[in-house]
Amino acid sequence: MEVSKPRPLQSLQALRALAAAAVVVYHLINAEVVYGGGLQILGGLAHLGFAGVDMFFAISGFIMVMVSSGKFGDRRGALDFLAKRFIRIFPLYWLCTGAIALVLSVRPGLLDPALLDRSLIRSLFLLPQEGGPLLVVGWTLTFELFFYLMTAMALAFGSERNIPFMLCGWAVALALLQWVPVQGPWAQLVTSPLAFEFIAGAAAAILWKSLSPRQGVVVLCAAVALALLAAWTLLNRSDFGQTHGVRTLAFAIPCALTLAAAARLELAGWWPVSRWAAALGDASYSLYLTHVFVLSLSGRLWIAVAPTGTITMNALFLASSFIACCVVALLTYRFVERPLLDLGNRWLAHIRLGAQAGSLPR
């Protein structure tokens, strides 16, 4: 009998959707400046959308602990883990990066001239480089790959009961490294305080089952209060997206608390998740990668067909662009990302079968 895989927590999918939507709103700031005739409806409030990245990193830490359960001490399993992550990240990312490279080669004037200085090879393999990869949102995927490598090392050489100690050791080392001046993209990657969010999410994955449903409600309220306090404190900072240290301290804990509370409340049946929120959560990676294309195209179309410079028209532009981003993401997930994942997983299963057959005695 075939054993079905457990369904992912739908509350996490809803939070993925929220995080991706927040990033879209953050990038709508620039779209409104460029295509909105000089008006800014969103203003500084939309800068908080960058916190969607913080939630993504916390979710990654949470999920890495969940999917690693029972798989420690297996070096072949660690390689299998990396292969699955490769299949998850690269195919759709390569398509999007290829689209950017094609436009740069055919019509470079349509894009930021600074992109011409980026390395295509480094971009394709998400290697650290000054200025980030060709696809503007790809810098976060470089961090994700780093987190995956750390997880694979823990799977290969660590033990499950030592997860709290490994996380504490990483956090302490990272805290100490904040006092060390570093230069270069590789050193900045390894010492970035953004890893605290991954660590916080992993800690939430360890602790959430120990909560009662009522404690989950209290934790969720605390998370909301801390997030509002952080938002109020950082709202008017123009460098919100660049102050990783300050923002990490402000949002890592509320993001992790939200994950722990959401998982616990869903398990108790206290966190209903709408079908649309779960669907957009499934398509969150597609939304994250494709929204920059949609915003650029929608802005150019808007300038061509609609008057700009009024609050009403800007509001229509922002709403229609956001909806277009979500629709394109859902279609991309259904017809591109999901088939690519299925193809990659079949390829990986074929490789596994070949390895097993080769290890049998003759």
Question: What does this protein look like?
Answer:
The protein has 362 residues and is an all-alpha fold. The chain has one domain. It contains 13 helices and no strands. Helix 3 runs antiparallel to helix 5. The protein is globular. InterPro entries: Acyl_transf_3_dom (IPR002656), Acyltransferase_3 (IPR050879). GO terms for molecular function: acyltransferase activity. Keywords: Acyltransferase, Membrane, Transferase, Transmembrane, Transmembrane helix. It holds the Pfam family Acyl_transf_3.
Short structural description:
With 362 residues, the protein is an all-alpha fold. Helices cover 72% and strands 0% of the residues. It starts with 9 loop residues before the first helix and ends with a helix.
